[in-house]
Amino acid sequence: MMSSWLEKRKVWPMLPVVALLTGTRTIIDTGSRMIYPLLPVFARGVQVEISAIVGILTLMQLLGLVAPFIGRIAELRGRKFTILLGLLLFVAGMVSVFIMPDFTGLAIALLLGALGRTALGPAMHAYIGDKVPYHRRGLYMGFVELAWSGAFLFGVPAMTWLIANYNWQAPFLALALLGAVSFVIIGLRIEPDTPVVHHVAFLPALRAATSSPMALAGLGLGFSISAANQLVTVVFSTWIEDSFGIQLAALAVAAAVIGLSELAGEGIVTAFADKFGKRRLVLVGVSGNILACLILPLTGVDVNLALVGLFFFYLTFETSVVATIPLATELSPNARAMYLTMLMTAVTLGRALLTPVAPALFASGLLANCLVAIGLNLIAIFVVWRYITVK
């Protein structure tokens, strides 16, 4: 009886679905983004050194490498199933803090939360890619990506308020409840999907997703732009302190500037990607990031100029990376979910491999980091210009 009722339930049209998915992504992304600014608070809460939690954060990044295996689930069981699986993992992680209010519970929360985000993100993009025509995907996917900056600008302050008024566990309870509500609404209101699976085994499915030069070029694009961004992201706070002295206010403003630049970049993609062209917008974004890399080292003479330089750097990066997502949905359309998880893996590798390189380069000054970032961005422009024909 319950199954027949579920079959007859009304599903929502695509616009409300995208709004729901955006809200859901905001919840998941808040769980990820709150850790960094609130790291000392959580360390004191579980009575460990910050370095112990940093080790967990490294493992969280490495979880992106298992994305292709989760992508296979999305191909076999459907995008909606994988979205719900991601939410279930996330909620279980958040609840674990209350079962074990110690370092172990926090570690489980962070790792399950990251695994849930790894499952949910690509499956969500694949679902939209299946349901929305390519000429409208920039609008819909750009809208969903507003969750990333929204989590930083609105979610993190809300979690900070909960800690100030209750305790360090309160954000986890709030996110668990919100995630559970999203789980129920998505289960009831989003139309199920039954993707066609061409290969049963994992390795043939992996080869099918990345068999064309265009698909490989997309992975090269994701790797290069994320690696270039990481070279500056790892050291920009140290650069600000070295240039202007230790100014916590300047670092706080820099964080707000980055959040606003991310929001602006996502807004540009939402508004213009479909009209201007996703491929063209990626090229404009990456080219702009090269210009930002040339300008940024010159702004170290004034803190306000430095903040403007950081805004331009992150604006151009966010534009290029968000425009890459709808573009990527058409680079391997017969294995869309698997390919999007491979893109996540490429982005993760770019960040992970260049993270230890950034401080070594910075020993020679920010210019060294920016020059290598320019080289990586030029590789991105080359692979897009030479091999990607989708507009």
Summarize this entry quickly.
This protein is mainly alpha-helical. It is built from 18 helices and no strands.
The biggest beta sheet is recorded as: none
Order of helices and strands: HHHHHHHHHHHHHHHHHH
Distance between the termini: 47 Å
Q: Number of helix segments?
A: 18
The total of beta strands comes to 0
> What is the CATH homology-level superfamily of the largest domain?
MFS general substrate transporter like domains
Mean of residue pLDDT?
A: 86
Helix coverage percent of residues? over 70%
- Give the class-level CATH name of the largest domain: Mainly Alpha
Q: Any idea what the shape is?
A: globular
The assigned structural class equals mainly alpha
Strand content: under 5%
Architecture overview:
The chain has two domains: 8-189, Growth Hormone, Chain: A (Up-down Bundle); 202-387, MFS general substrate transporter like domains (Growth Hormone, Chain: A), CATH 1.20.1250.20. It contains 18 helices and no strands. α2 (14-33) crosses α8 (134-165) and α14 packs antiparallel against α15 (303-328). With 391 residues, it is mainly alpha-helical. 82% of the residues lie in helices and 0% in strands.
